[in-house]
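Example 9 (inverse folding). The structure is encoded as follows.
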């Protein structure tokens, strides 16, 4: 069976057996998924758009960022088999302050909030699955916030490398520095100590 939206989410959170769905529920969830391809530099979302998608990167690399005082601040990075979404805009269905940009040519699996909400009304298994998924996503977001507050830059860098060691090769240094909340010079010093 070809991997669909559900199988990719399950791979992201394979430590959660509570997220297992019956074959019928999997087919239902996957039927509401669409696959799109975007080129390097293209945007899935611009500032002012309402975030309508929960997505998974099949191939490629994306970043979520916002602008502050003329600077681009990278908030999130996602590559193969990683989930992405604009949390506040997605749940509140309000205009976003964030951009979602492709850093490489990318293939994305997307499911709309409207479809997810409708599936949750129709199917108890999907409702429980979606609640568990949401809890995990919010937990990850909270952990990144806590890391930025309490962890030194070197630890944040190590955590990023542990999550995906290819980021240092695939993501431009300026975006990595922004994601970590440091200057490019500080990132350069951290990297020089690692070698």
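The amino acid assigned to each position is listed next.
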């Amino acid at each position: 069976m070809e991997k669909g939206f559900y199988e990719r989410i399950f791979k992201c959170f394979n430590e959660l057996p509570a997220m297992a769905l019956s074959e019928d529920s999997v087919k239902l969830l996957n039927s509401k998924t669409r696959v799109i391809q975007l080129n390097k530099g293209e945007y899935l979302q611009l500032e002012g758009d309402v975030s309508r998608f929960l997505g998974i990167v099949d191939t490629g690399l994306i970043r979520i960022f916002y602008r502050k005082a003329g600077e681009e601040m990278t908030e999130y990075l996602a590559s193969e088999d990683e989930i992405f979404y604009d949390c506040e805009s997605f749940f509140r269905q309000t205009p976003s302050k964030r951009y979602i940009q492709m850093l490489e040519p990318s293939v994305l699996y997307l499911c709309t909030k409207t479809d997810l909400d409708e599936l949750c009304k129709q199917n108890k298994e999907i409702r429980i699955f979606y609640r568990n998924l949401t809890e995990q996503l919010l937990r990850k977001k909270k952990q990144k916030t806590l890391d930025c507050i309490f962890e030194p830059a070197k630890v944040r860098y190590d955590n990023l490398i542990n999550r995906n060691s290819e980021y240092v090769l695939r993501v431009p240094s300026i975006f990595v520095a922004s994601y970590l909340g440091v200057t490019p010079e500080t990132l350069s010093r951290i990297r020089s100590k690692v070698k």
